[in-house]
Amino acid sequence: MTSTEHHLDEAVDRALRGPARDRNPRVGCVLVDPAGQVVGAGHHAGAGSPHAEVAALASAGDLASGATAYVTLEPCNHHGRTGPCARALRDAGVVRVVYAVPDPTAQAGGGAAWLRAHGIPVERCAHPAAEALVSDWARARTLGRPHVTWKIASTLDGRVAAADGSSRWITSAEARQDAHRLRSRVDAVVVGTGTALADDPALTARTPDGAAAPVQPVRVVVGLRDLPPGARLGLGPDPALHLRTRDPHEVLAALTARGVHSVLLEGGPTLAGAFWRAGCVDEVLVYLAPALLGAGASAVPDLGVRTIDDCVRLELAEVRPVGPDLRLRLVPGRLAPSTPPGHPAVHALVPPVPSSEED
Amino acid sequence: MTSTEHHLDEAVDRALRGPARDRNPRVGCVLVDPAGQVVGAGHHAGAGSPHAEVAALASAGDLASGATAYVTLEPCNHHGRTGPCARALRDAGVVRVVYAVPDPTAQAGGGAAWLRAHGIPVERCAHPAAEALVSDWARARTLGRPHVTWKIASTLDGRVAAADGSSRWITSAEARQDAHRLRSRVDAVVVGTGTALADDPALTARTPDGAAAPVQPVRVVVGLRDLPPGARLGLGPDPALHLRTRDPHEVLAALTARGVHSVLLEGGPTLAGAFWRAGCVDEVLVYLAPALLGAGASAVPDLGVRTIDDCVRLELAEVRPVGPDLRLRLVPGRLAPSTPPGHPAVHALVPPVPSSEED
């Protein structure tokens, strides 16, 4: 391991002291003097608190002068609530900056360029653990909203329930456990009031033995209808958030304001169809049971596709066996040559990149 | 390579001189004297001709005495059109028999046991090329009818056509080429008159450049309606066989009588449903396009499943990417614990083993 990797590891360790779910990503910074001694360290404690670089400079005091800064994320160059970190590093006498992940936001980016323009050498060093700290946040920043995964658990013939409406269970215990692991990795799990009223789901992430997983997603129910008293989504220390709207953009804006960077759609075809038509589905995750029903509700709602040339084409990003089932991860593919440009069913997957406000 | 493998290779080479599609499998035999010299060789030239052992004995004449026989298939022990080969080998003075594949039919099997009971050492030596020669035939003998593969080319949501009926193409060029290779490997391709009238398919096996493949399946159309003059199934040197029935058992009996050991169902859901309900589907092959239609005809017809406990469970035997698509091969799985015994949708996949008549 090089000393650079070692100091970035230290910065990652510091970053992990920050909150797991926040509007901002976890960032860590260590300051190292020419002899290789760590003279300061800091992390970002959540939106509104000082950035990691500022915290590290404060802990180093005068010792920052002449030090190299190792930061998990490129120092910012904008005046948010905390002032630009690039300038703060320069003003404190830092002589070199090493960072792991470029800042993906045009608003805040440019810190590396600013430092170089002011005579301070800057080096980027890829670091997987540092990338993992910011990937959800970066993706959400790029999208201008949380990243949305549409989860489907269906038979080979695309059914999510039998003719009589029964659906427990289509997929195997292994696939359902995998889906629980997924819940504890996303920031929010969303269903519509239809699913909430029909199935009374808990939407908690559980371990294979049925216990609550250590990290739980924000549980969200979307729609205008009330849930009955005693509904499982209303129970627990953190009752589900009930967003009284049918507009996916409103849902995602409300979740963005709560620091949600990733969303798992677990509702039925109605909810998924609304997100799809609004251009708010970034990934489709299908748990495919090697089973046939021949009748019953379809996993995929009417998408407005009338003829084969308008068929929605995705790209298989990953195929993985999960117990007896298959898990397919699909992402927007290139347009089929015969698809007219601008067709909404496909464009829905490639929303424009808006700007964002949080710091 | 051992001398046994070498002589079985020679027997396989001889076998390949026989007809590729016949009621009987291709079988080859070589007779080798104690010095290792081949003193006789023969192959089976199709139903009604002498068995390979008899042909080899005839070519060896008196030199057969004292020789070892290498045969791709266990010598028969029954009086068909040709008399039992086990006895013929013994009578000719063969002192040892090596074979690759046991005869799966109770009627003809027992040749090895008969030889041993008459003091002649018999050895079985597994040989993949020899197994490949007889696998389709052996499977059909075990089933008492041709092995039936139900081919589906569908979207992720189980659709085979868009809302307006258009379906060219759901899957990629690579998947369609793979399906053409499959056609040239099965003995017969079957559609219903519905598909024949709607799509006017040729059902020939073609190479990627569009030329006819060297080996073509028997083309079969099933149903009571006439095809119009000029239908592509009526064209070519071997026009399609039109079986005027709706009964899958009648179809398979007619094909068995024509030496067909394997059938590919390429018709739509109506044909597949009839075969399914009749218990005549042994394998499901799905070309799955990573695409969504949200509406349109379903790949899988109503199978009589009303509730989730009766869901038809298959086992994924193979998953293979074919271009951008996936190819899934599925075979009957074990019954789900909650499935009542005797449920037809699953039992349909495990027919009883009947006896068979051909020689």
Can you put this structure into words, describing what you see?
Two copies of one chain form a homodimer. With 359 residues, chain A is of the alpha/beta class. The first copy, chain A, folds into two domains: 3-136, Cytidine Deaminase, domain 2 (3-Layer(aba) Sandwich), CATH 3.40.140; 144-347, Dihydrofolate Reductase, subunit A (3-Layer(aba) Sandwich). Chain A is built from ten helices and 14 strands. Chain A has helices at residues 3-15, 52-60, 85-91, 111-117, 128-143, 173-185, 193-199, 248-257, 269-277, 344-347; strands spanning 28-32, 38-43, 68-73, 96-101, 122-124, 147-155, 188-192, 218-222, 241-243, 262-265, 283-289, 291-292, 312-322, 325-332. In chain A, the strands form two sheets. Chain A has an eight-stranded mixed sheet with strand order 9-8-7-10-6-11-14-13. In chain A, a hairpin with a 5-residue loop joins strand 1 (28-32) and strand 2. In chain A, helix 3 packs parallel to helix 4 (111-117). The model of chain A is unreliable at 334-359 (pLDDT under 50). The interface between A and B is large, with 51 and 51 residues. Chains A, B: Zn(2+) binds at residues 51, 76, 85.
